[in-house]
Amino acid sequence: MPPSTDLSAEFTIAQQRVRLLQQQPQAFPHPVDPMEPVECIETHISWVLLAGDFAYKFKKPLQLDFLDFSTQALRHAACEEELRINRRTAPGLYLGLVGLVDGAAKDASATLRLVSWQDAPPGAEPAVRMRRFAQEALLATALDAHRVSPAQIDQLARHVAQFHAAAAVASGADTWGTAVAVRAPVDDCLAALLAPVTGALPGHGPLLAQVADWCRQQGQALAAAFEARRPAGRVRECHGDLHLANIALIDGEAQLFDALEFNPALRWIDCVADIAFVVMDLAAHGRADLAWRFLNRWLEHAGDYAGLVVLRYYGCYRALVRARVAALRMDPAGGGSGSVQAAQTMEEYLELAGGFAGQRPARWPMARPATLWLAHGFSGAGKSSHALALACQRGMVRVRADVERKRLFGLAPDAVSDGIPGGIYTAEATLRTHQRLAQVAREVLAAGYSVIVDATLLDRDARTLFLALADSAQVPCHILSFEAPLPVLRERVRQRALAGGGASEADVAVLDAQWARAHPLQPHEEAITLHVDTTAPVDWDRLLPP
């Protein structure tokens, strides 16, 4: 990243000091093996030195259209802010501030040393001190190496949802999250991409123009939705830069780091704008199935199904952000392997932005037209696991009765309901649960997504409610009847109860009561039903050809 002309001299000295620091292991306030080189990871706005068990992040002296690190005071303030916002999710990684001190302010060859910020003299260069982790722990790296499990994606979704739930909420006096504030960074990205796309990818100029037109149209069409999200408490102090290289697997669990510190307008955003980065980047890495798994699991914890209406817009924006970052890494003079790779990355993300905007085949599949699916069957039949697998494979939203029932009582999906007076499985609670499921399904369909309602739906009136919903929404409706013999169901329910920790609390007594009271499917329901035998592996490509 080249600095502006008036910062070029300071940039050069700062860069030289970083290079010199790599060669001076004695400058660090802890042992550094002189036989192991100090590594430097360079981003478009920072240098990160990896020394021994620690990492040191220096802000580059830059002034760009979206940040200002032009003075030592501004860089210090940015370091302080970086500590504050990242200790929300990774307190064990962010240790404090240090100052880089040398003997002569203008002599890059002077002996350097790093001291705690409290002991640093005026003029010292600030840096954030972090606990180091292996680069293989980055989620982006682990994903490309096929080392990420579905369970880790589930944990990531829970971690992000809990972070959002605890994050500060924008007040009515704030301008964060207004329609104008939402559209501004999108317009900035599109404007910033015009020159690099014209220069390096001239054949993609029409695609950029199409994406820009779509963003303008959607920005206007969604204005009321953006504004409604603010009073609903959905605009919060989020992460702001939640792509896969800013998530690390520490001790096997995903942890968010490197939140966006330099511009609060890019951090005080809709929570859906935050998770759209994860969804988009999982798709960019060729794992649309995990993108849908993450989305479904986050929705289960957050309950923000109404936010799906703005997801495609934010997904497109996040792809444009990564394209813009790639453009910043290109050499203005052209040529060089780095510029070629940056241009390829820019092209990939621009294509993905086109997919979200409907201008290219999407890498995260969406079933079209939007369809209502009903996952019907007794407890233990495998509805939840198979419905989730189908949702991830085909690009759908699953809404689960066990989760929504608990949400009505203020319980988390994996919480135990023993303390609720009268219990949560009364006839009234079941009616309210079905009404909640219908409301969510209506929101998902209105946003243009297919939805799978995961509930027993053994009662004829319950099924009638959803068949009527499909009629009113003018979408096709299909029933997936998940089936297994009663002894198999009983054993599955017994094993599930012993394992604990899941959303379902149905035991064998509940299953037996279901079996006694179930209403068989009627002829008009059988006409739209696919029977799924869950005693054998379920092959959705065979049962439901794409």
UniProtKB/TrEMBL annotation:
One Pfam family per UniProt: AAA_33
SUPFAM superfamilies membership: P-loop containing nucleoside triphosphate hydrolases, Protein kinase-like (PK-like)
InterPro entries, alphabetized: Cell-binding_unc_protein, Kinase-like_dom_sf, P-loop_NTPase
PANTHER family listed in its UniProt record: GLUCONOKINASE (PTHR43883:SF1), SLR0207 PROTEIN (PTHR43883)
Stated name of the protein: AAA family ATPase
Organism per entry: Acidovorax benzenivorans
